[in-house]
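Quarterly update from the structural biology core.
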Amino acid sequence: MSGAWGVVAAIAGSVLGAVALVASGLFAARATRTAARTTAEAQRYQAQVAAEPAQRQADLAAFKEIREGLERRVERSERRVDSLTLLVRSFAGYVSELTGQMRTHGLEPPAPPDRVDEYNRTGV
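Predicted structure, tokenized:
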């Protein structure tokens, strides 16, 4: 009978070995999936961190471009306002001379528009 028990023990050992092999294979597969997922997350994070300075540089370049464009527009507007201010002052001097000539010839010029009168009184 010891021969039969030896065969049974060998079969049981083989079955247990097979079960242990399958279990260890499942454990290894699970560990491999977890490691792969962790590695992928780490790589994504690393790529994000590596891309951040480049994104900041791109944002800075866009900001500088927008700022320079706005500065050019402000400069053009300031030149235009200065030019129009000089034109209005020149025109005011010219109108003043014409008004003086009209009065010299005995003609009373029409009253200035309300806005001009307000400016003459307040300076604004």
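The chain has a mean pLDDT of 85.
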